[in-house]
Every structure is written in structure tokens, then in C-alpha cells.
Amino acid sequence: MMAAEHLPVEVCCCVLGVSVSGFYLWRSRLPSERAIRHAWLTDLIVQIHADSRGTYGARRVDAELTLGHGLVVGHQALEMLMHRARVQGLSGRPRFRRVPNVATASDLVERQFARTEPDRLWVVDITEHPTREGKLYRCVVLDAFSRRVVGWSIDSSATAALVTNALGMAIGQRNPDKTVINSDQGTQFTSWAFTQRAIDSGPLPSMGAVGVCCDCEDPQVERPLEGSLSLSSRVA
Q1: Fewest CB atoms within 10 A around its CB: which of 74, 179, 198, 204?
Q2: What number does CATH give the domain 98-236?
Q3: Model confidence over 24-58: pLDDT tens digits?
Q4: What is the C-alpha to C-alpha distance for residues 52 and 213, in angstroms, rounded to an integer?
Q5: What is the mean predicted confidence (pLDDT) over 142-153?
Q6: What is the pLDDT of residue 230?
Q7: 51 Cβ neighbours under 8 A, 6+ residues apart
Q8: Contact indicator for 177, 152 with CB cutoff of 8 Å
Q9: What pTM does this model have?
Q10: Would you call 127 helix, strand, or coil by DSSP?
């Protein structure tokens, strides 16, 4: 590395405590069989990891080498080569953890989604869409009576601003009075910004089951969110 930076070879060898002849001998030496094998295995490991879409760790790469290619590689050697190539698998742990002791709204709907008047019940949820430039998140507010989109918002990140902007559009278009807005217990909907925006404008926050905005399991009850979150939904 020091010689590659155009430093004098004699000075570098003196600093490192090696002989100049030994340095030139090392530089002209052919790669060993072990170095050639490690280079070949590294290319194969990188290819296996890429074919798994970046999900395989050391154990699955080892299984692919053994069962798929008939190669036996020691665990320590495999981990060393993966570390050098900066290749690692995805952990099975959840990327997001639920924050404990967060205040949530009561369930004011109790799976009764049928309404006879507009703007009596709104349901809101977030959907994720993969694009060529990354993930895109969309929040949609629907009127349970007409199944129309009354508010929506699109952003590159699923934050409290995403759901607050969608709610703000719905409030600006409909001017609700005594409207219940039902959501799941996601961090965006339990945030202070979303809750305060709803309280200040009139809608009453309501939260159903964890991770399910429209937690209706009765087949006799119409699910207002089913097929209604597409971009072709009717906008009031």
C-alpha cells in the first residue's frame, strides 16, 4: 500500500522492518493455490448471494455450495471470505419494533362498517409500492358509505406526515362533523400529529386490531376497503 502511493521502497521497507530484496521477491511471487482457491470461492459466493437477492447468510451459502456445487468449505473459511467480500445475509428479526406504552384510541367501530350516510365513517390505511427508484408509500382515506377516496397522500417514506396530509385533504374536501376515522395501531396513526389533526378538525380517532385497518372477519359484512385502494378508485 505504501509503495502504491509512490513512496520510496527503501524507506517503506525500513519503516516496516523488512528487507528490500524480500519485498521484490514477494511482489514477483506467483499466487499460491490457496489464494487462487479463495479468489474463485469468493466469486462463487458473491454469485450465490446475488442469486438469492441478497438474503442468504453463511449457513445457506454453505448449503448451496455443498448441495448445489458439491464443494466442502469450512465454516470459518466461508465466514472469512464473506466478510472480506462484504457479503452478509438478511436477519429474520423484525425491522420495526412496537413502541411500548403508546396511547391508542378506542375501537369505536367494533367491526360495524355499514353506514347509511356519507362522512360518518372514514377508514385509512397505508400501502407500499415498489418502483424502479425505490419504495413508494401511499395513504388513502375512504368513506365507508360511498367507498370513495376523500383524501390521499404519496411519499417516499411512511411517516406521520404521510397520513396527516391525507387526513388534511379529506378534511378540506368534506368538512366533516362527528366523523369517525378508523385505522390500525401503526406508529403513524398513534403519532401526536395525526391524532391532534383529527381532534382539532372534528373526526374522532378509532383503532381496530393491530396491523389491520378494516378488521372485519364476518363474510356477511361488506369490507369497504376491498379493492378500493387502487389508483383508479373514484375520487369525490
Answers
A1: 74
A2: 3.30.420.10
A3: 887 777 878 888 889 999 999 999 999 988 888 89
A4: 33
A5: 86
A6: 40
A7: none
A8: no
A9: 0.46
A10: strand
